[in-house]
């Protein structure tokens, strides 16, 4: 029987050989495919395995990872303090995805960024657990909360953006309605998806960051851009240059006319400073007709219109619309028709006027700090463009100061500080309520903060104007930033 | 002095008891380190009970060693340390899976059954001084084996767990009689085939290049096949069915040296499986799952590929080096402490660890087959060969199943899966192999007198 026994022995070895070859195939060749299969919960656990970095701003901890003690499954859970106040910026860290700063700075936060390689290696050798780096934001918590409360209190929808005009640092970015990221960050795919889907289906679009992801008709706040173009076109023009400002401006080639707000009169002719102060539509219509579409378009582009930005949140393009003839142009000049701006873009306009004409690139991340407290990356302010010369910027500043002192924007006045601003009330459709806007910067002589407030149509009554609805919010935000 | 020359001329097999003791200590040490590793991997601390656990396992194995040294001194020195290692790794994995919180996993239980298993091992060695006694019980063994197989079908006694009716409940215990049936039937096959092998081997016609047996000699094959199919149909236990039939065919081949038996066996099995596939959903299901385990439709189906795929995910996530003990996610794999313990082990020990484990299994099997080649009588050869083969075959079926080399059929992984019946049965299996290796390696009788008509032999 020894012959057959030897053959049986070979058969047994063959079976073990087959098992070994197959295990090599499964664990070496197919391993990656199996590891990354979406049904393999392990990749999902890995997201919660290491301590993700903090997100801070102005010395406050906005987001932290809490050790739940659930070893090897959902160990660290994300906790958002004042969730809705910051959610449009910070976003969320959900079981299968991440949004906002949580997404754009993910590699720093989870510790896999190449810049953290050396530290990670050292930690591995000394068998310390992997920890992510912290992200410090430029936001000013006090101003952020004020802006959110002001918007939230009266049930308004809209956005508030505050910038440091000299650097481009985003001091406030609020979008309302907002959401609480905590339910989306629970380590349970089904629960998180339910929370997300509920928000996603909400008609008020709480998941949209209105400051950066949507554009709206800017209304009269755009007159600052029109003024900039008009002043830049001819250096001899100044705030006292007069233009035609009829009660009714016939639009060339049509039977319709351009009127002032509520049919008011600007007295036939107006200086530039008066035209802006009382927000005279026909005066700006006249300027636009005199300059033509291209001039206005170029000026807008210099303020950043038409550019997609990454701050590092994605910012959609603003656009003044196509050249659709002279009638359309007069409406574009007063921020109507196809003229569509993000609230961030309008804050950039105000900031550029305050910063002697220079447009700074907005940014949200102040610095990246390792768990040991070493800064590995610090923001460097970056100039995007020069929108206007310092001379023109100075003239615009005078005009905007006048708006707040004598015109439609008096609600934004601050005690002892000169404020420059411009109101906007944009018609959205015939008969529908208007968008209310306000852009400003302060102190006018040496600005520390530039603000754009946008209140969406219908959310603040049918007769909402920029001066009545938006300017008070800008007032509070500027006050919070300036600490007065 | 002619006397001295004569003694030197007879080659003496080394007992290698010292080497065995060292290897046994080494196996226990590996298991203790693995145990400590689980604690370190999970919470950075050496488990509190490590010393007690290690000393317990060490003491148990030392006792087994003394029994072996006393009652089977010539036994193969490798078998016991190798089995100790596999059993120990299994205990560590079950301990680890219990810590992960998977319901049903109990290291304490398994340790208890391991202890009972070692007691059974010792008892078998002490009681069964000559394994050839089993040859006299051929038909008794056959009857007992069959009865054990049928036992789960008895109303009120049998229990259906996880879709297979292979359990018998006695009091609070559930036992799997199939595991013991496996032993009894191999004993029966060995005894029966030794008696009938000449007939089965010689009678018959030659057709083309295959020697066909006579029709009436097909009887036993058909009966075994019928029993296997019966197990498959009534107990829904594909694994045991395949295990028994495969073992029988292999032993038939070993006994008769006829390839035709293997071919007939394969034909019968394939025919049976195809027919079963047509009739029973669960058989066809298994086959579809085998073809494409990642198919989402099968994944979501009840009784579909969920478990297999979770096991494969574990293998894939373990990769070449594994996550390390205590650092995987065995809880994700259903039944990771029993049928799928190999997947849980693969995740934490990686390809490297599994290759080593398979090597250890292969060594146990080859030591068993070596015993069978060295054995001096046909019954011992066939019994040792059959027991070794059934061990290899069982590892092949279950490991091949969980790694999707072959369709998955539930079986326990010998010495690793949690389950008292399997641990006991397999320790008895090892005791039989040890007993036979002792007989095989024992030096032939030596004459203690120089000459004379009456010779006194000493064993």
From TrEMBL, chain A:
What is the protein's given name?
A: Penicillin-binding protein PbpA
According to the record, the segments passing through the membrane are: none
The chain positions of domain Penicillin-binding protein transpeptidase read 158-479
Provide a Gene Ontology MF annotation, just one. Answer: peptidoglycan L,D-transpeptidase activity
- Biological process (GO) annotations? cell wall organization
List, for all copies, the residue spans of the domain called Penicillin binding protein A dimerisation. 52-135
Alphabetized Pfam families for the sequence: PBP_dimer_2, Transpeptidase
Identify the InterPro entries for this entry. Beta-lactam/transpept, Beta-lactam/transpept-like, PBPA_dimer, PCN-bd_Tpept
Coiled-coil intervals in this record?
Answer: none
GO CC terms in record: plasma membrane
UniProtKB/TrEMBL annotation, chain B:
Where does the protein end up? Membrane
According to the UniProt entry, its GO molecular function terms are: lipid-linked peptidoglycan transporter activity
- GO CC annotation: what is one? plasma membrane
Recorded topology in the membrane:
Multi-pass membrane protein
The record's InterPro entries line, in alphabetical order, gives: FtsW/RodA (IPR001182)
Q: Does the keyword Membrane apply?
A: yes
Q: Indicate the transmembrane segments per the record.
A: 21-38, 50-71, 78-98, 110-128, 140-158, 178-195, 215-232, 238-254, 261-280, 340-361, 382-403, 415-434
What are the BP-aspect GO terms? cell division; regulation of cell shape
Q: Does the keyword Cell division apply?
A: yes
What keywords sit in the KW lines?
Cell cycle, Cell division, Cell shape, Membrane, Transmembrane, Transmembrane helix
Q: Which PANTHER family match?
A: CELL CYCLE PROTEIN (PTHR30474), PEPTIDOGLYCAN GLYCOSYLTRANSFERASE RODA (PTHR30474:SF3)
Listed name of the protein? Cell division protein FtsW
Organism source for this protein? Sphaerisporangium melleum
Lineage in the entry?
Bacteria, Bacillati, Actinomycetota, Actinomycetes, Streptosporangiales
């Amino acid at each position: 029987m020894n012959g057959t026994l030897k053959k049986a022995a070979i058969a047994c070895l063959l079976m073990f050989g087959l098992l070994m070859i197959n295990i090599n195939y499964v664990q070496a060749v197919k391993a990656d495919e199996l590891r990354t299969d979406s049904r393999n919960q392990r990749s999902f656990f890995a997201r919660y395995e290491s301590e993700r970095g903090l997100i801070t701003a102005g010395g406050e901890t906005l987001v932290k990872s809490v050790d739940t003690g659930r070893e090897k499954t959902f160990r660290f859970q994300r906790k958002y303090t004042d969730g809705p106040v910051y959610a449009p910026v910070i976003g969320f860290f959900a079981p299968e995805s991440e949004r906002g700063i949580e997404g754009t700075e993910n590699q720093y936060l989870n510790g896999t960024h190449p810049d953290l390689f050396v530290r990670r290696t050292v930690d591995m050798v000394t068998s310390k657990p992997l920890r992510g780096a912290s992200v410090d934001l430029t936001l000013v918590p006090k101003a952020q909360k004020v802006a959110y409360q002001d918007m939230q209190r009266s049930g308004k929808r809209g956005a508030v953006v505050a910038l440091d005009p000299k650097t481009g640092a985003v001091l406030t970015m609020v979008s309302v309605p907002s959401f609480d990221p905590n339910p989306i960050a629970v380590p349970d795919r089904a629960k998180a998806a339910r929370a997300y889907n509920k928000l996603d289906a909400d008609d008020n679009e709480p998941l949209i960051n209105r400051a950066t992801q949507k554009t709206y008709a800017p209304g009269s706040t755009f007159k600052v851009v029109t003024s900039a173009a008009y002043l830049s076109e001819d250096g001899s023009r100044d705030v006292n240059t007069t233009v035609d400002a009829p009660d009714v401006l016939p639009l060339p080639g049509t039977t319709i006319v351009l009127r002032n707000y509520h049919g008011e009169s600007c007295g036939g002719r107006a200086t530039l400073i008066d035209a802006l102060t009382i927000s005279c539509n026909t005066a700006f219509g006249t300027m636009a007709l005199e300059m033509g579409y291209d001039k206005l378009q170029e000026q807008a582009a210099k303020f950043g219109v038409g550019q997609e930005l990454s701050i590092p949140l994605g910012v959609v393009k603003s656009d003044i619309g196509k050249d659709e003839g002279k009638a359309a142009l007069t409406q574009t000049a007063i921020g109507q028709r196809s003229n569509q701006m993000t609230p961030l873009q309008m804050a950039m306009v105000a900031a550029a006027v305050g910063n002697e004409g220079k447009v700074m690139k907005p940014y949200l991340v102040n610095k990246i700090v390792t768990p040991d407290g070493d800064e590995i990356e610090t923001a460097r302010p970056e100039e995007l463009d020069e929108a206007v010369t310092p001379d023109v910027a100075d003239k615009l500043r005078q005009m905007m100061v006048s708006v707040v002192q004598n015109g439609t924007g008096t609600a934004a006045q601050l005690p002892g500080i000169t404020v420059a601003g411009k109101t906007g009330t944009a018609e959205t459709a015939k008969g529908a309520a208007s968008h209310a806007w306000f852009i400003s910067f302060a102190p006018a002589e040496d600005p520390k903060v530039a603000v754009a407030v946008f209140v969406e149509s219908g959310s603040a009554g049918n007769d909402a104007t920029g001066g009545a609805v938006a300017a008070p919010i800008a007032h509070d935000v500027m006050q919070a930033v300036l600490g007065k | 002095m002619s006397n001295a020359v004569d003694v030197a001329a007879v080659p003496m097999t080394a007992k290698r008891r010292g080497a065995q003791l060292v290897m046994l200590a080494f196996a226990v040490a590996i298991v203790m380190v693995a145990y400590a590793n689980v604690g370190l991997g999970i919470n950075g601390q050496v488990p509190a009970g490590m010393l007690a656990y290690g000393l317990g396992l060490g003491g148990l194995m030392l006792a087994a060693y003394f029994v072996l040294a006393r009652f089977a001194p010539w036994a193969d020195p490798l078998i016991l340390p190798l089995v100790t290692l596999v059993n120990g790794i299994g205990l560590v994995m079950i301990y680890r899976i219990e810590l992960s919180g998977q319901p049903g996993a109990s290291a304490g239980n398994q340790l208890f059954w391991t202890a009972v298993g070692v007691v059974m091992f010792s008892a078998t060695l002490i009681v069964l001084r000559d394994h050839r006694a089993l040859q006299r019980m051929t038909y008794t063994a056959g009857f007992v084996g069959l009865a054990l197989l049928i036992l789960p079908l008895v109303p009120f006694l049998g229990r259906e767990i996880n879709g297979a009716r292979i359990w018998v409940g006695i009091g609070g215990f559930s036992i799997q009689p199939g595991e013991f049936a496996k032993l009894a039937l191999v004993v029966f096959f060995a005894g029966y085939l030794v008696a009938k092998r000449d007939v089965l081997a010689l009678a018959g016609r030659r057709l083309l290049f295959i020697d066909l047996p006579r029709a009436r000699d097909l009887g036993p094959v058909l009966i075994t096949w019928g029993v296997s199919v019966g197990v498959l149909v009534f107990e829904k236990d594909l694994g045991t069915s395949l295990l028994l039939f495969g073992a029988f065919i292999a032993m038939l081949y070993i006994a008769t040296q006829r390839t035709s038996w293997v071919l007939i066996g394969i034909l019968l099995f394939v025919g049976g499986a195809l027919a079963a596939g047509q009739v029973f959903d669960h058989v066809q299901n298994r086959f579809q799952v085998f073809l494409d385990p990642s198919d989402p439709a099968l994944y979501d189906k009840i009784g579909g590929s969920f478990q297999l795929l979770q096991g494969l995910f574990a293998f894939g996530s373990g990769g070449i080096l594994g996550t390390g003990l205590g650092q995987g996610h065995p809880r994700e794999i259903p039944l990771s402490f029993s049928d799928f313990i190999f997947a849980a082990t693969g995740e934490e020990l990686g390809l490297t660890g599994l290759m080593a484990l398979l090597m250890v299994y292969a060594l146990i099997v080859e030591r068993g087959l070596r015993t069978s080649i060295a054995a001096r009588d046909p019954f011992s050869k066939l019994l040792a060969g059959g027991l070794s083969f059934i061990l290899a075959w069982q590892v092949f079926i279950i490991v091949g199943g969980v790694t999707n080399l072959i369709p998955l059929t539930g079986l326990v992984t010998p010495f690793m899966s949690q389950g008292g019946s399997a641990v006991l049965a397999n320790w008895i299996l090892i005791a039989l192999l040890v007993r036979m290796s002792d007989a095989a390696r024992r030096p032939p009788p030596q004459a203690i007198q120089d000459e004379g008509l009456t010779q006194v032999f000493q064993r």
